Amino acid sequence: MTDQTSVPRGSAPGLTRRQAYEQRLRRRSNTLAAGSTLAVVLAVVVLVPLAPGWDAVKRSFFNGQVFAKTFPGLLDAFLMNVAIFLWCAPIIAILGLVIALFRDVRSPALYPLRLFGAIYTDVFRGLPVILVIYLIGFGVPGLGLPRPWNSPYVWGSLALILVYAAYVAEVIRSGIDSIHHSQRAAAASLGLSDGETMRYVVLPQAIRNVAPANMNLFIALQKDVALLSFIGPVEVFRQAGVYKSLLANFTPYVGAAVIFLALTIPATRYADYLMNKQRRRQS
Amino acid sequence: MSLRLRKSRAGLSLTHGFVQMLCWSLDKFPPPSNLWTTQQGRTIRQMKTVITSACLLAATSSVALAAGHGSCADGLTLEENVLTIATGNPAYYPWVLNDAPESGEGYEAAVAYAIAEELGFEADAVKWVRTSFDEAIQPGAKDFDFNMQQYSITPEREQMVDFSLPYYTSAMAVLTTKGVVDAGATATLDSLKGLVWGADANTTALPMLTEIVAPEKDPLLYGDNTDVTAAMQANQIDAALFDLPTALYLSAVVVEGGVLLGQFPAERSENPDQFGLLFEEGNPLRDCVNTAITALTESGKLAEIEATWLQEATGVPVIE
Known about the structure:
The complex is a heterodimer of chains A (about 280) and B (about 325).
Chain A (H helix, E strand, L loop, with lengths): L16 H31 L6 H8 L2 H40 L7 H16 L2 H11 L12 H27 L2 H9 L4 H31 L11 H12 L3 H32 L1
Helix pairs in contact in A: 3-4, 3-6, 3-9, 3-10, 4-6, 5-6, 6-8, 7-8, 8-10, 9-10
Chain B lengths: L1 H27 L10 H28 L16 E5 L19 H13 L6 E5 L2 H5 L8 E7 L2 H4 L3 E2 L4 E3 L1 E6 H5 L6 H5 L3 E4 L4 H9 L6 E3 L2 H9 L5 E5 H11 L3 E7 L8 E7 L5 H14 L2 H9 L11
Parallel strand pairs in B: 1-2, 1-3, 7-8, 7-9
Antiparallel strand pairs in B: 3-11, 4-11, 5-11, 6-9, 6-10
């Protein structure tokens, strides 16, 4: 928005014709943007409450009383989400890296690893998360494991880890592929072994390149933790469901959404910031 | 709310009038016959077929309207002379047998047809639709006159929807497995407190559980009965709280090695689990249905239906 030249804004006589023209253009597009935004906001604010069912919708989705009553309980339950996220995220990062390295193995003798990596990512990226959670969360403990090894927390988390590690592995692999072959050749000519090349030359650049993409995956994971509620753990989504059922009111879901947004919006913005920074660095 | 209902009914009769006018004009002024051979003519002919069938339909419905009887539910149902009842998807035993409420088999199906009869609806004038719990409480127009799937009546829910008088008062029962009983679980509160509990999150079982048993560990919650039993089979939970008829069914048929440890009679709870029909808030049909339920209770018909479909419910040990 600021003028690139040293000519102060508004002092039209000092502007060249082009600058004056560009300034007019900018003002015009700003006015248009403000006008259309205002029109949309007004339309939503005015028209939605005019809908005949608005009162009913307001009462069952935006009920202040219910919100106040249930929000503390929801916050409490959200700690469970945070805990599950915190113990899953590092394992996902490590497993994802390992699988990505499997897929980059070049020695013929280790081809089975490569094959395993490919099959693993194909399978777990191809399955809906909820299906994996059901299969592993109920299926494996059904084999007759003793407590506490059959806990839904353990197996539900494992399901999340398996699925998300597949995505992370693919992202990291794309990062590894993005490093030009000449770098490996240069490293080899310096006398670095394959392992050292990967460790000191390829991975540091690859992981930095894909950090924003991985950040997005972890935001998605934060939301998918809620799926664990299907096999028993009472996290924020399930707690909202309990309130919904007891009060016959959907407001608790809105409360849960608010909590999720409070966490995911800053995280998304941060991922965007990282991505922009990276684009600037690369250009 | 009732105002809006009436308005929509006015809209309905307006539409009805419009259709009749259209039919009349079609009879009176048929399109010119030289049009029939052209492409346009074909479209118009097709339109005429549609309109004629609509006219026929409208005519039958007005005949049915004329034949309407002076019952209390007249004009209060969604469709004239049809009682639309919603149940779960699937509907569970023993409330509805074989997921086929049309058969009238199972406690709720039988009660539904008894109420329909009281209201003056023939059995073939009853139409069934399926909804989930969430669909039943969502704001906006409903596609059922009332919804019947073991809804517990609570004052909190009553602020959002309307319930009929209770048609069943259920004891709560403890479902567990043989393994847990062998490990020493008994039908005493002390023993129950130490178990790992599970419950269906959409039911009132959770507040009951906290109120009556107050388990030491936080209960695990699930989306439906099937998931609760799956968790029990996976030995992730020891016991679960259900209404007695459901628990009986699950222990006998669904859960391998399932045992019904005991029941908490309805009198034990401050807010016993009473099932009511769920109505959209302000639905005027509720008063008629309440009259019908009262009549069924007083005539002993409700008890008779209960004896037919829920007879095994007696004889389960009571938890002290």
